Amino acid sequence: MAAALRLPPLLLPSRAARPAGAAVRGSRRSRAATSRIAAQLDDTAATSTTSTSSAPPAGFTPPEPQRFAVKPGQSSNIAGASLALPFRLGTGVFVLGYGVSIVDADQIPPDQYALEFQGRKVKETSKIGQCPRPAKPIEIYEFEGCPFCRKVREMVSVLDLDVLFYPCPMNGPTFRPKVLEMGGKKQFPYMVDPNTGVAMYESDDIIKYLAKTYGDGTVPIMLSLGLLTTITAGLALIGRGGKGSAYTPAKLPAQPIEIWAYEGSPFCKIARETFVELELPHLLHSCARGSPKRQDFFKKYGLFQAPYIEDPNTGVKMFESADIVEYLRATYAA
């Protein structure tokens, strides 16, 4: 991909920018995209009045992944984030054309990702392999506590897209003003597709565009009910009490942090709320059930669990949502 990934200039010197680190990714395309982003963020760092080095917290050790485990003290957070599932009927949990069957364990090789169920394995299929894939990550400006933004994030999960998210929490000093500069309105979500040159507001229009451009043209029923979709997307936020909406002063990283996550997961929700509150740009690798990325991840790490982050600014790679939240706050909160 010869074309450079478009990144808006970050013009506010009050936030300390960090020098670029080395991105670690198995995918050649992801490494190239991340390096292009970093190059443009480095230009911003050069114009800032202050600069700080990136390092993980003193004595930091990434936790061991614990599948389906809830860290002590986090039960209420997970329960609140899980309220979205019944309100949205699981939209954002499964990719386009998801199908499932239970097969004998010997029908799926041990090096292939699959859930185990009573001595058998769960075979998952989807239509994602038949859909066009964007060469460069789509860019979306949004924030967690917005029902219209949630709708678009659900469609991102359904279509298994990689998205460069620019968080726009209330009072955020960096990306909210940039949306006004680019589109003329402080309205969210706002999408820019560097692959086609299309930029647009309005969640329903964004959803239809993504479905037509990177899907099979269909919109899931729970995203096509008009006002009812918006109401249930709003109700899905009740359990989080406005988290992921307001800005917490933070230092701007030199490179976007990479995160493997999907909208339907309550564990991923908790981690992404912190990304938004700290206004940390992040490259999301969507990986809902049926995503081919799950197999890629399994092949590389020997397991699959989300959320998972790789921070090219510090070299940290880690699982566990509650620990990710603590790491992000310790590393980037001002």
Automatic annotation (TrEMBL):
Low complexity bias (residue ranges): 32-58
Ranges where the GST N-terminal domain occurs: 136-218
InterPro entries membership: GLR_AS (IPR011767), Glutathione_S-Trfase (IPR040079), Glutathione_S-Trfase_N (IPR004045), Thioredoxin-like_sf (IPR036249)
Region feature Disordered, mapped onto this chain: 18-65
Entries under Pfam families matching the protein: GST_N_3
Top-rank lineage group of the source organism: Eukaryota
Official protein name in the record: GST N-terminal domain-containing protein
The species this protein was found in: Brachypodium distachyon
Gene name tied to this protein: LOC100825225
